[in-house]
């Protein structure tokens, strides 16, 4: 049945040739139309030729090459495996009590990737891995609502203002009262730790989550609400008890800096 269309096309072409050969005056009247239709005829002839060739030549299926999608999936899998190994090494390093060169603070965030839109990081609380973080990208000149805060050592506190975002959180979560704010950042204010999944949700703040998808085109974090609730319930009581809480934020070159400092300490 698959060969029938090819035979019909060939028969039609032969009939047309015989018709125009025996009636040349018709050809004079429609030659312009034929010129415009020549591309379509070529396609039909090509298909007909392939069908006819199939009558006499046994088709040997070519080996199925690896598709671009399979190549991409393989690369993503490799990236995830490599990244997972690197992150585990980072966690192990920070949780090691021998690393004593990070300033004393309740929370430490280590940035490890910036793709020009999004910064990914790791949050440690009391030197124990706690969550993944996501921020806006670094910019030499601040773009309001689209630039991560500078690295540094900052205080943590409560923002008492009832902003629209704070009100939305109050409506959603019975355990929420006010946002936890990173304070005294030069040229920044109202920088919170809160819920979100991509750089579109940050506006300069720090998002936290229990999972990360760093291999996707748009970097994202996953299960943010669970991580935030855990963070909030751990940190808010300390703030309410007037404990002096601080946060360290280190840029992507933190490993080189810590290694050099550790070498100086051990010298």
Automatic annotation (TrEMBL):
Keywords: Membrane, Transmembrane, Transmembrane helix. The keyword Transmembrane helix applies. Pfam families: DUF5675 (PF18925). Residues 108-235 form the DUF5675 domain. The chain crosses the membrane at residues 7-24, 30-49. This is DUF5675 domain-containing protein. It comes from Cyclobacterium marinum (strain ATCC 25205 / DSM 745 / LMG 13164 / NCIMB 1802) (Flectobacillus marinus). The lineage of its organism: Bacteria, Pseudomonadati, Bacteroidota, Cytophagia, Cytophagales.
